[in-house]
Amino acid sequence: MKRLFVIVLLLSAVVLNMAGKSTKTMFAADRIFAVGDELVVANRAAKQLAKLSADASQIVKTLNLATPATDLALLPSGDMWVACEGNMGWLYLVDGERFAVRRKVASGATPSAVEYLAASGSLWVAQRFAGELWEVDAATGEKRSVVKVGREPVDMVSFGDDAYLLVANNMPEMAATEECVAAQLDVVDVASHKVVERIILPNGSTDVKAVAKDAEGDYAYVTHLLSRYQLPTSQLDRGWMVTNALSIIDLRKKQLLTTVLLDTPQRGAANPWGVCVTPDNGEVVVAAAGSQEVVLIDREALHARITRAQAGEKVTPSLDGWENIPNDAGFLYGIRDFVSTKGKGVRSVVAVKDKIYATNYYTGQIAVISGKERNVQLQSLGTSLSSTTVGRGDMYFHDATLCYQMWQSCATCHPNDGRVDGLNWDLMNDGMGNPKNTKSLLLSHQTAPCMVTGIRANAETAVRSGVRYILFAAGVDEKVYQAMDEYLKAQKPLPSPYLVKGKFSAAARRGKKIFDRSCAECHSGKYYSDFGQYDVAWTEGADKGRKMDVTHLNECWRTAPYLYDGRSVTIQEMLKVHGPHGDVTESELNDLAEYVLSL
Amino acid sequence: MRKKSFLSIVKWCGAMCVLLTLVSFQAKDFEGDPEAVNGFITQMQKSLDDVLQYRKEGATVAQVHRRLTQHHSKLTKSFPLFYDWWLQDGKKEDPHEWLWQKSLLDGINQRLSKHGVRADYTDVKKGMRAYLKVCEQRRERRLKEFVKDSPEILYTKLRPLRPSFYAYTEGLSDARQEFNFFPGGALCRMKMNGIWGKEECLLEDEDGGFRDLDLHFDGEHLLFAWKKSPKEDDYHLYEMNLKDGSVRQITFGLGNADFEGIYLPDDNILFNSTRCGGASDCFYTEVSNMYMCDREGRFMRQIGFDQVHTTTPTLLDDGRVVYTRWDYSDRGQIWTQPLFQMNADGTGQAEYYGMNSWFPTTVVHTKQIPGTRKVMATFIGHHTPQHGKLGIIDPEAGRDENEGVMFVAPMRKPAAVKVDAYGQSGEQFMYPEPLNEREFLVSYSPLGYDIGNVLGRNAMTFGIYWMNVDGERELLVADGKTSCNHATLVAPRERPFMKASTVDYTREDGVYYMQNVYEGRSMEGVKPGTIKKLRVVEIEFRAATVGKAAGGGLGGGAMVGTPPGVGRTAWDLKKIWGVVDVHEDGSAFFRVPARKPLYFQALDEKGYVVQTMRSWSTLQPGETQSCVGCHEHKNVVPMSQYGMSMAMKAGIQDLQPESELGVRNFSYMKEVQPIWDKHCISCHDGVKHKLSLKGDLKQFDYESKRLYAESYIHLTHTKPELDRVWTITAKPYHPEVNWIDAMSEPTILKPYHAGAATSNLIKRLENGHGGTKVSKEEIHHVALWLDLLVPFVGDYRESNIWTKEEHAFYDYYDNKRKIERERDKENIRLLVEYQKTQKK
Fold first, then answer.
1. B350 within a domain of the structure (yes/no)
2. Beta strand pairing status for A132-137 and A38-43?
3. For A516-571, how does the pLDDT look when each residue is reduced to its tens digit (9 = 90+)?
4. Residues B471 and B407 in one domain
């Protein structure tokens, strides 16, 4: 009996130990949080929140969620609110002690960020696809008020003793034909519930991912791409197509101080994602998800250099006036380190005491970086996303090491799982001097031919051409392309935020009648396209008379701006160019727009 | 005998056997006592005694110095390892110092003291043995990491060349001037066994020579150049299979040298070749440019279309090739041998480091430091051999002067100086093989020119050393008779990034895009809107040097062979291709012929040069190359503040003719003289007005082998002096007629430096000088002449007074070049056919 008891005990220990690592559970963390001195990760693949051991080597507790978590906010009580995505998203109130759900509240159109403000005693929730900031009761999770912010708010920080929120909006909002096309940040006055300042980032800024602030609340650091979309895509050298940036916001003045490039003149630090500042305020740490590394910047030296540049000093041989800091790839020379995370897909970083923890999203690891020598220790916490074909395709799609000098990945122009960046690009495949608006890759495998003019016979060809002519990579294994194809094919349209409880609104139903009458001849079938190319009336300049492919309309609520050159910001504007013309009232156009936006 | 003593003896004997093995393969070519240590002591004592005696006899310092160099030579050749230890433990800045001391024992004890061990020996033999022992222990410590996997090193043995200019090293069988080649070479391999190496000769050729090793990424194949005879063969590319030692020849053809080959990521080979033909602008020698072929030697085609030599290419991990490009179009030739880069398909030819700098004078033997974005290279001069100082370039720190340079061994920032024969004093380095950020292999001579005599049997030779950036070193291999060069570590490595090629050989054009001409360092003070057009000019190179003019300016002094003008005027013929519009926002987008060395001139509304490119750019067929502005700093990215440019919206322009003459080589007699004939010579006939503008062709000197028009000589303020070497030189900066001096400085000139916009002559023509009515088109031709640096001829044979022999000489090299150009054309045709079959 005693022997049996010992055997059972031993077996239990083995099983429990294995459970700690959950080797069978897929582990793909894209957010890591410091909750006090503890580490909590959002495991997107398993739709879990996971508490880690102090050394990040084990998962000690998990919490299942309905949808993947995007952010969490700590309450003074030690409990936390967790935002979970989805066009019918969720807020979870989690017991900090027991790591268990206390309350679950339905919330908006993809809650993407949460911030608890002691000053207002409330929770602030960014609703990504609604372009809204909700003030929410911190006890019940119920909405109190709404502030309209920019396009796809994804992160925020409070400042000024919780008097303000700086909201990072992911995408540009203007037509792609404007002189300046860039994403903007919003400064929200908490008391008045108003946006009091809009801070526009440099021309070409898009895919804004995250914001962090320093310990004093003086500066905020925002990660984003700084695309050089104004130029033909003839080369990648020296940041010709895209650079990878960190914008610095002076929180006291509520304005952009400057933007520095994370890249060097000879290589990119692709796809800057998460950002944090070390507790001692010494370093700004950026996760460069495309180039598979963490970028560490000496914060004091950075600001000293900016101050000297502002005073007119030529702080680097390549700096031509302080207003050109966003164009100087030599600006961070000597005050920045690159540290490989020895895995794939570092999306989130957090600094606790003297260590930095980074999540390798695709390879299922936490990279622990410590010491002046930047030692990297890897902790594998489950089966990696890259163990599946779709996961591998996802990984390659986001992998800038496939690219010449690591300037960009496919996700650079097609962020947010193959969608759009809001910019026009002059690709070389149809001549030059005729830029086209970035097209979403969603359903492109199902809707051949591909690209704005249908110039690629199918999406498979477009994928291979993209790697060759935009990443400038030759000799890539066919397996990489095949995995990318599978990943893209697996993408499904998100339900439109224009749906009301999952169904068309009344306006949309009216609009459908107009659509069926006036649009469905070309925009037919389940993809709303007959896959034809037509000489349309609105082509101009070098593209005059060039046939355009009938674009599929699924998920077009998120792919603004519209038309081949992105000249129309809204569907309504687009319809006025595109038609139906003639006997259609303004109200009918609005109904039609509502319908199209609901697809 | 006690066990401990016995074991010590056994151990010491064992060590000596090993030392003897090393010494014997090093010592095989020189005389000395078979017992190395005693032999070393004896020789050292002899040397010291001899010098002491010589000084007692009243020898002058110069005489003593010459004697010292001979002793250095003897000791280095007889006891290379021991003597190197001895030298490195002495005074670095004064290798002679031990020979000025009273006794050998002093030197021994001083060195022992430096090692921190007992240093009070009274017996020379005991003391020396103790010293050599601590040196051996130090060698163990230093080489521990390097030797842990018993590495193999390949290298060549070849006597160092002393050409008059660093690049004249290919020893072409039909060389026109210098023939730099010493027969007798070997290709060797050394395998480290512990801290000692064993040498094996893979190939030996007493009539020939081997050079330029490049190891394939698989670690099993070696590319090298081999010349089998001084006059009956030339350097060609060969590949050796290191596993079985088999060798196959890749390129062929007497009369062409193919050398400095490197593997590219797609297994093509890029190499340096004299097949481009042509002669150096400032001398008589043949030049070499970059060529490419596949691994079988097929589809050989020219990649660089450069004025003079491009040398020592190397492949970086990201797939770029970095190479040295001598570059002096419209500027002086001494200072500009900077680093350039290109993609592995020949596109993207652009500056890597130092294009507009005085320093460094020349950078060669560039090699990437593994795991970094920096390179290590040899820093030499213009009129020097290919050895000098060793340093690291980090282009991310800067691209000019010494901004991005650190010298090593020890680490120090070099001063940015203007020195022609740079880096020739003291220790000498060449051909680094970086192992990591701290350690490297290198060919090194600790004594440099302080050993032996410059050209004779006792001349400086190089051994291959392990070294680190602090200057600690250990000799790995040396040969008493010759130099060991180009150490190459045998190890497979990850194939560098294979960048997709954008070259389309079915096309004959390429496209340039410029974001904003007003951005960049060359447009300081130029108001936006000033630049209306870009003129596109090709520089055409001479086939051979017949006759010379000469001149000197801020960029140095030189002869110009087969002169297009006189001294200080255009180096090469100028072919006008046309103009394109520059839009209001400074942008331009235009198509040009590919595979040609082109340069651009930014023109104002009158068509006068505001700024001109004193270099050239070449596109491969189908290439689109973009730039920010007029020489933006290479660490700058495109400007974000601008929107889509007007040029992008307007589309690609074709070149437009600038005048009724269309595309042509500029000739003074065809374009400018007729204007003087029509409007000026009725007064300016040399009688009514002493400034004759007549077009009579006359001989003004004995060297240029040309007849010049009087008007040309007068307007360019050329004062021929028939009794001097520097016979026919113009004055470029006269207020009446000025142009950018062809011997101008390498650094960027301010806009409107000289030319049509600043010459009074143009104003006179515009204002109707002397009642003349010179048309706008006619003024344009005169302005063009000034802005092209006042060339005289449009053809190298024009207006010549060559002898029959000189004609034959020029024709020989011209025909040779024509043959290679035909071959190039045919190879491209075959390549296109081959590529079609691959697509199927």
1. yes
2. unpaired
3. 999 999 999 999 999 999 999 999 988 999 999 999 999 999 999 999 999 999 99
4. yes
What is the count of residue pairs from A and B with beta carbons less than 8 Å apart?
156
Query: Average pLDDT for residues A185-191, to the nearest whole number?
Result: 97
Beta-bridge partners for B376: B367, B392
pLDDT at res. A245: 98
Q: Select the CATH number that applies to the domain covering A506-597 from these four: 1.25.40.10, 1.10.760.10, 3.40.50.2300, 1.10.357.10.
A: 1.10.760.10
Instruction: Report the CATH number that the domain containing residue B442 is assigned in CATH.
Output: 2.120.10.30
Kindly determine whether residue A317 and residue B396, on different chains, have CB atoms separated by under 8 Å. no
Checking if the pLDDT of A14 tops 70, the result is no
pLDDT digit string, tens, across residues A442-463 = 999 999 999 999 999 999 999 9
The interface pTM score, or ipTM, of the predicted complex is 0.93
Contact B364, B311 (CB under 8 A): yes
Q: Using a CB-CB distance cutoff of 8 angstroms, which residues of chain A are in contact with residue B638?
A: 228, 230-231, 239-240, 327
Give the DSSP letter string of B180-246: -----EEEEEEEEETTEEEEEEEEEESS-EEEEEEE-TTSSEEEEEEE--TTT---EEEEEETTT--
pLDDT, tens digit, for every residue of B422-481?
Answer: 999 999 999 999 999 999 999 999 999 887 655 565 578 899 999 999 999 999 999 988
Check pLDDT > 90 for residue B1. no
Cα separations in angstroms, A536 against A146, A542, A546, A579, B830: 41, 14, 8, 11, 43
**Whether the Cβ atoms of residue A125 and residue A117 lie closer than 8 Å to each other:** no
CA atoms within 13 A on the CB side of A573: 11
Q: Do A202 and B626 touch (CB under 8 A)?
A: no
pLDDT digits (tens, 9 = 90+) for A289-345: 999 999 999 999 999 999 999 999 999 999 999 999 999 999 999 999 999 999 999
The answer to whether residue B416 neighbours chain A at the CB level (below 8 Å) is: no
Interface contact B513-A475, CB threshold 8 A: no
Q: Is B754 left (phi over 0), alpha (psi -120 to 50) or beta?
A: beta
For A19-33, write each residue's pLDDT tens digit: 444 446 899 999 999
Q: How many CB atoms lie under 10 A from the CB of residue A143?
A: 17
Residues in B touching A399 (Cβ below 8 Å): none
In a domain, B498, yes or no: no
266-305 in chain B: CB under 8 A from chain A = 266
A468 to chain B: which residues are within 8 Å by CB? 500
B794 assigned to some structural domain? no
pLDDT at B454: 59
Output the pTM of the full model: 0.94
The answer to whether A204 contacts chain B (CB < 8 Å) is yes
Question: Is some CB atom of chain B closer than 8 A to the CB atom of A317?
Answer: yes
Report the pLDDT averaged over residues B656-662: 94
Pairing of the two strands A183-189 and A194-200: antiparallel
Mutate to test the interface with A, among B635, B639, B835 (most CBs of A within 10 A): B635
Structural domain count, chain B: 4
Phi, psi of B386 (to 5 degrees): -90, 45
3-class secondary structure, A596: helix
- Asked if B624's CB is within 8 angstroms of A428's CB, the reply is yes
Which of B350, B499, B624 is closest, CB to CB, to A232? Answer: B624
User: Residue A376: helix, strand or coil by DSSP?
Assistant: strand
In the beta sheet, which residues pair with residue A41?
A32, A50
Residues of chain B in contact with residue A238, where contact means CB-CB under 8 angstroms, are: 634-637
Cis peptide before A449 (omega within 30 of 0): yes
